[in-house]
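Section 3.1: Structural characterization of target chains.
Under the original work plan, the team committed to producing a structural model for every single-chain target entering the pipeline before any wet-lab resources were allocated. The record below documents one such target. The sequence was received from the expression subgroup and is listed exactly as submitted; it comprises 632 residues.
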Amino acid sequence: MSAITFGILTISDTCSQKKENDKSGPVLRQLLSNANTEIGKAFNGIVVCSDIVPDDEDTIQTMLIDWADVEELNVILTTGGTGFSCRDVTPEATKKVIHKEVPGIAHAMISESLKITPMAMLSRATCGIRGKTLIVNLPGSPKAAKECFCAIAKVLPHAVDLILGHEKSIKSTHEVVQGKHECPHKSGGASSWNPDDVAGRLRESPFPMISIEEAQKILKDSAEMLPPVQVEIWACRGRVLSETVYSTCHIPPFRASIKDGYAVIASDGKGRRKVLGGIEAGHKPDNVKIEPGTCVRINTGAPVPDEATAVVQVEDTVLTERGADGKKELEIEILVQPKEGQDIRPIGSDTQLGDPVLKEGMKVGAVEAGILAACGLAKVSVTWVPRIGVLSTGNELQNAGEPAKPGHIYDSNKITLMMMLRENGYEAVDLGIAIDEMGAMLDAITDAMGRADVIITTGSVSMGDKDMLKPILQDVFHAKIHFGRVNLKPGKPTTYATLTWRGTKKYFLCLPGNPVSAVVTANLFVFPLLNHLTKNNEKPVVVKAKVVNDYALDPRPEYARVILVWSDESEDGCPKAYSTGNQISSKLLSCKSANALLMLPARTAQKSDIKAGSIVPAMLLGFNQLAHEERY
C-alpha cells in the first residue's frame, strides 16, 4: 500500500445535530495530514472517510461495518462515546463488530493518559480487528483524543503490516527492533559487516566506479512516477503539468477593442459622426446599434458592436459638439480614413476553443497560471511531487545557534540543501542530525522513511570506520545500492539506493559530507532525480566559458566553482570564468557568489592542464546566473 488509509468517526448526539461543534474530528484530521507533526512523522496517512453519527449503537455498528468491509480502510478511529453516560455505547458497538480484540492498544492509551490525569482510568475504550481493518476507540475531547492517538501512533504502521501480511516490511521492522544488524555484505562477497570490527573493515570500496553519465541514466531508469493529482490553479505554481492543457473558450470570446476610441463603420470614411453613447469593458456588444453616420465611444478591451468594422483611436478625432451640460459628447470628427478590422481583436485571435495552450511536462510559473485562468480552468492535472527530507550525519555536527562544543562544527549542509531545493521549486523537511552510532542511524532512517519519499543524506558514505550508511541500507533495510562511487571530483562516494518500505518505494541519495561536495552532487544527481520523478523537462543550462585561470587537471572529471561574467566587449560572445579560489571540498566559501560549475575533463597523457583563455563548458547554477564586469 502506498499509504495507510484512515476513517475518522465522531460519535456524539450534539455534534450530529450541529457539525460545527465537532472539535475532535478536525484535530485528528490535522494530525494525520501534517507530516511535520510528531504524530505525522510515524507514517504516511490519508483520511479517506470522515463522518459524524449520534450515540446510537446500531448506527455506530452499521458505519464501522461499512467502512471496514466495503471501504476496506486500514484504520478506523472513533472519537467519543467511551465514558459512563447512559448514551456512551461506542465500546459496546465496537465489541459487536470486531473479530479480534487488541487490549494492548487500549492499555497503552490509558497508561499514557494516567500520566496526565487519574480520570483516565474511567475510559472504556475498546480496540480490535475486523477483517483487514484496525478499529480504535478514542475519547471525545480534542485534547484526550490527541494524547491517546499520540501514544499509539508509532505502532500503527507495523500493526497494519501485520494485519495485511506485508512480510518484507514486517521482517525489516523485526530486524530493527531485535538488533539483527549483521548480514552478508552483498557487494563485498561473503564477508560480514560489523560496525565494531574497525580493524576488519574493508580497505577498498566494493562498489565499482561509474561515470557521471551512467549514474544519471540509472537515476532516470529507476524513477517511478505515481498517478497525477488535480490541484486548484492557485496551488499549481512550481508544479509540472501531467497532461497537455486545452483552452475551454475563445480568447477573446468577443470582438474586442485594442484602443480607447470610437467604434465606427469603416466604409463611412473620414468626417463627422454622431456619438450614440459609450461601451465599457464588461458591457454586451449589442447594447448599442451603430448605423451609418454614427459611432460609439469604446474603451480598450470592451466588446465591439456587431455593426462596427473598425475602431478609431481617440487621438485621431476632435470633439465638434458638446451636450447642454458641457459634459456629454454629441458629435466628433474622424481625422483619418479607417480601415476594415482596424484595432479590433477578432474572436479567438489569441486562442481558439480547444487549442493546446500548455504542454505536458511544462512547469507552471506565474504566466502559465495566468494562461490557465484566461482559458477558464479552475483546476489542472499535475504530476505527483515526492515528499523530500534532508538528513545530516556525523558525531561532529551540531545545530547553528547552540553553544559551540569541543570538536564540533555547525551543520551547514542541511540548510544549504534545503534552500537549494526551495530555489528550484521543491520543499523539504528537516530530518535532523544522526550521530555515527548504529541505533541512532537506524532510528533516523526509519523515521525518515515515515516522513519522506526521497531522503537526501550527507556524510557517512566514504571509507571511514564510522561510515555506516551504505551497509545499514543494504544489510538491514535490504536496499538496492544502484551505485556507490562516481568518477567525479568532488563527490566520488555519492551513493544512490532504493527500497520498498511499507509498500512504498523510497529513494536515497547519499551525498558526501563535505559541504562543497554536497552542493555539487546535489546539482548533478538530486535535481535530475526529482525532475524525473515529477516529469519536469527542465535541464541544466550549459554554456561555453573562457577561463581566466590555469587549471591542473585531476584524474577524475572535476566540477570547479566559478563566477561567469558576461561583457559587451567579448569578441567571441563567451563569458569569462573566474575561479572562486581554493577548490578544497570542505570550503563552502568557495561556493559564495558562484553561478556556474566549470566542467573540467579528466587528465590524460596527452592533456594535463587547461590554460587561461581556453573555452570550457560550464553548468549554470540556480537563479544567480548573471554577473557584471564592474564587480571586479
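The longest strand covers residues 45-53.
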